[in-house]
Design brief:
The protein is α/β, with parallel strands linked by helices. It has a domain at about 90-110 and about 230-465: Rossmann fold. Helix content is about 45%, strand content about 15%. α3 runs antiparallel to α4.
Length: about 500
């Protein structure tokens, strides 16, 4: 299977080449030239096997890897050492027609582990296949969860370094502590004075800077990405949606389901769209946003407009105004019109907005529905679900649950629904404690004490990856302005200008 750029210039490269490169040379994102369709034989196999075997069956259709190489990648990632449940992404049924897919049973307690535990294996195998002799530097902008998951996946991986930038005031106390205490001989972590979009834009600029690329090449360094702009990061996310559909089928549910995804960068819900393209029985994709509802407005109107107030919310991993992966969807729905995509992305860069044509908007609205929840709604939803179902939601999954309720009320669609749960509630303990115990419970209390308070109040254990975080030594203290990201990176890599 060959891959091509969404901007239409770079074409006919292999999956392994796309994974190494991360971002296309024309600034676009790599996508398959065509998508396979799962056969009845595939579905029968997937229904009656384990999560790792499901992953192997699906990944094989997209990668230029041997069976042995795929086995190596999957077995290294999806095992009981990395995940605290053999199901990897278990379904919890709150009602007959509603299930939560818990995607946070990996080492960093967030859904990013589902992809970032396997990406280092995909990348190192890809490098070997292509006889890549350069050192690979993974460059990451994070709104919280991707950074820690990537650090954990790539720490001490031979032939790689990983550099992570996060917004200094844009992540939770727990998320920050996870990153600044990260061990590993090949890791660098820095906070930026700015928001996630500032970090993401700076990282994209580095990828597209030909002068930097030349300087890196002279020093035998190849940049790659662990953000969902990298196909190797997005591909494994398709697996868990197909796995969920197979589990529904195991239980005798043959009808199409709806899937609700809390999303900011559009990668997680795009993976569900790709699962539908492969033949998964999915009816409607429901996009859930927080107060930074640029995606909700786009799906409803066809105009993407980032010229708005950036809001810091209690669901910080969704505090994003530039949703990179939307470009992949638009490329698919415009019948791979790279020129059109390039023009829209140019308008977004120069004017901060673009409007898609009517035909494209009609396709989007036939597939997607969108809603949002502000912080007050999020708190209320966490309390409601804990009270009514004795199930504890994190702040991002609560956004999705609220939007699910909106959708049911506005459409009267009662079909079976899956909600993607993207983080452990303990990762955002302060907000969750406030939701179920009230404002006074969090006063004069840090997040690490609140972890214990939440565990005691709910009788749920603190996940291993979050225990004793405050006792770990801080190893990364760098704070930079957004304009300094490039020189800081080059300094860390010990690259001097001629």
């Amino acid at each position: 299977m060959d891959y091509q750029s969404t901007r239409g210039i770079q074409r006919k490269i292999t999956a392994s080449q796309a994974i190494i490169q991360g971002l296309a040379c024309d600034g676009g994102l790599f996508v398959p030239e065509e998508f396979p369709i799962l056969t009845n034989e595939d579905w029968t196999f997937i229904q009656h096997t384990s999560y790792p075997n499901r992953a192997k069956r699906i990944l094989k259709k997209f990668l230029d890897f041997t069976d042995e190489e795929i086995d190596y990648c999957v077995n290294g990632a999806y095992n009981e050492k990395n995940f605290d449940t053999p199901e990897m992404a278990p379904l919890v049924f709150l009602h007959d027609s509603l299930a939560i897919q818990e995607l946070w049973h990996g080492p960093t307690c967030a859904f990013k582990d589902m992809a970032l535990q396997i990406l280092p294996y995909l990348l190192t195998v890809s490098a070997k296949k292509n006889k890549e002799k350069n050192e690979i530097v993974i460059l990451v902008a994070t709104s919280g969860d991707t950074g820690k998951a990537a650090l954990e996946g790539f720490k001490d991986v031979s032939g790689t370094k990983i550099v992570v930038f996060f917004p200094e005031q844009g992540v939770s106390q727990v998320q920050k502590q996870q990153m600044v205490t990260q061990t590993g001989k090949n890791v660098m972590v820095a906070a930026i004075r700015g928001n996630f979009d500032d970090a993401q834009n700076a990282v994209k600029k580095i990828f597209n800077d030909k002068e930097i690329a030349e300087d890196l090449a002279k020093n035998h360094i190849q940049l790659s990405s662990a953000n969902s702009i990298n196909w190797g990061r997005l591909l494994p996310q398709i697996v868990y949606y197909i796995s969920a559909c197979a589990t529904f089928q195991q239980k005798g549910m043959q009808e199409e389901i709806n899937i609700v995804v809390p999303t900011g960068n559009f990668g997680n819900i795009l993976a569900a769209y790709y699962a539908k393209k492969l033949g998964a029985p999915i009816h409607r994709l429901i996009c859930a946003s927080n107060s930074n509802k640029v995606l909700t407005d786009f799906i409803r109107t066809g105009t993407y407009d980032r010229n708005r107030l950036f809001e810091k919310t209690i669901s910080p991993s969704m505090d994003i105004l530039i949703s990179s992966n939307l470009e992949r969807l638009l490329y698919d729905l415009t019948d791979q019109d790279g020129e059109k995509i390039s023009e829209w992305m140019r308008q977004l860069s120069t004017e901060g907005r673009y409007t898609v044509d009517r035909k494209t908007l009609e396709k989007i609205q036939a597939l997607f529905w969108a809603g949002y929840a502000d912080d007050a709604m999020t708190y209320k939803t966490i309390a409601q679900v804990w009270r009514d179902d004795h199930y504890l939601l994190d702040t991002h999954t609560a956004v999705a649950y609220h939007v699910y309720q909106q959708y049911r009320k506005e459409t009267n669609d009662t079909r079976t629904t899956l909600i993607a749960s993207t983080a452990s509630p303990f990762k955002f303990a302060g907000s969750v404690v406030k939701a179920i115990m009230g404002e006074t419970a969090i006063q004069k209390t840090d997040e690490f004490t609140l972890l214990k308070k939440l565990s005691e109040a709910t009788n749920l254990p603190i996940p291993q990856g979050l225990r004793d975080l405050d006792q770990r030594p801080v190893l990364h203290t760098t704070v930079v302005n957004k304009e300094e990201i490039s020189p800081v990176l080059m300094d860390y890599l010990q690259i001097k200008k001629d």
